[in-house]
Structures are given as C-alpha cells and as structure tokens.
Known about the structure:
It is a single chain. The protein is mainly alpha-helical and 277 residues long. The protein folds into 2 domains: 7-60, no CATH class; 64-273, MetI-like fold (Orthogonal Bundle). The protein contains 15 helices and no strands. The chain has helices at 7-38, 42-45, 60-67, 71-101, 107-116, 122-135, 142-146, 153-163, 168-176, 181-192, 194-209, 213-218, 227-234, 242-262, 264-273. Helix 11 runs antiparallel to helix 14 and helix 13 packs antiparallel against helix 14 (242-262).
Amino acid sequence: MADAHDPRRHHRPVLIGGLLAIGAVATAFPFLWMLTTSVKPLADSYAYPPKLLPSQVTWENYATLFTDLDFGTYVVNTIVIVLISFVGMFLMALAGYGFAKFHFRGRNSLFMLVLTTMMIPVQVTMIPTYLILNSVKLTNTLVGIALPTLVSAFSIFLFRQFMATIPDELLDASRIDGAGELRTFLRIVLPMSKPIMAVVGVLTFISGWNSFIWPLVIANDQNKYTLAVGLSLLNKQLTPNPPLQMAGAALMVMPIVIVFVVFQRHIVQGFTMSGLK
Length: 277
C-alpha cells in the first residue's frame, strides 16, 4: 500500500489543476482575442507583432453594425425566430408526455418513427419543405423561417426520457382529484420538468440564434435575414475590417455563452435525469 505521506500524492492535484488551467486558458484565448479585437481601432488590427490589448478602446465597430449595416434588423429577426421556436417547446413537451405516460396501440412504433427522422439530413427535406411553404405563401416570412424547426425529434426524446421518471402515483392522484389531462400536465408535469425544460430551452435558443442555411434559402429579402446570414455578408466585404468582423462575431457568440453559463447547472441536471429509467 502506498505511503499516505508520499509527496507525489500531494503534488498530483496541483499538477492536474495546472494542466486544467492551461487547457482553460488555451480554450478561452480565442474568445478573449475576439472581444479585445472588437474594441480595437482598425490600425491596431494590422500592427506587428499583434497586440492582445487595444491601444485605445473604441465602441465604434459595434455602432457601425447597427447604424450602417442594418444589424439591428438582423437581431430583431433572430429574436422573433427564437421566440416562435419556443412555442415548439410546449408541443414537444406534450409529445414527450404522451409517449412517456400514455399506453396506446403502436406507441413504440410511432416513437421509433419519430427517432428515425433524426437520421434524415436537413438538406434532403429542404426542397420539399420549401415547396410546401411556398404553396401556403410563407416563403420570405419569419414564420416560414421558424416553422420547419418548430419540433425536434431529439427534444421529444429528451422530454420522453425525463417524464418517464415522474411517478405515476402523482398523476393518478391528480386525476382522482378531478383534474383533466391538460391541467395535470400544466400543474404537475411541467413544474417537475424544469431541468429538462432548461436543456431544451437552451438547445432551442442555440438552434434559432445560429439559423443560417434555411433563412438564406427561404428569404429573398435582406430585411428577413437572421444574424448569422448578416454576419456571413459582413465577411464578404471587399475591404477587410477585422475589428468590425470580430464585433459581429462577438454579437453572435456572447448571448449563447451567457445563456449557457446561466443555465449550466440545470443543463447538467436535465441530461443526467433524462437518462434515468
């Protein structure tokens, strides 16, 4: 048996902590470079050797995005699409609840069919989806952009796995007290499903905030573009402007980082509990 006073055992946590700190700094450095470059004057971005900190902090790059490049419209469009996508969370929660707690003929086959859709690439269904939305006059609209991503098979799977862990006795007691199925779902199931709601909420936010290919296909009016599409247009400028591009990238990335940090504990808890049987 190893000696309890072996100095190697005391140095091991310090070594592991040091390696983790180095890894954290290496991972965070690109984000730090993005943020510092976004507030640099244009001349600083061409300095050699490159400097991490700006010689003078300027917010002109962010102001240019909203005053000259119409990024305010892109941000509003993206927020609207995210809000519409959140409506799908309620629908997916209902579907997960039905698969978890209701017994009906063909339930397992239908659930497997839902999971099978996860194996179909988005590019395969893009043209049929476009034709369907075009037939109902929803192309070049924010509703048409958000509608195909309203429901996700993976999110239904997460809801189903989590809600299967809710005791049936609680639901039976609610029904005995005279509550209907919708009231039982709203008053008991949803409050108990806050961890998985946080997980699906973050995934929904990230998916809507990063939407790029579908908005680019279905929208032919620049006023309907999302933030990701606007950022791609910014990168195609004839005159490169690294601070302006980094400002756009920061505007794209930081909301996702903030949302993830705020809901990190709920995300871990939700993924853990959704795997219980």
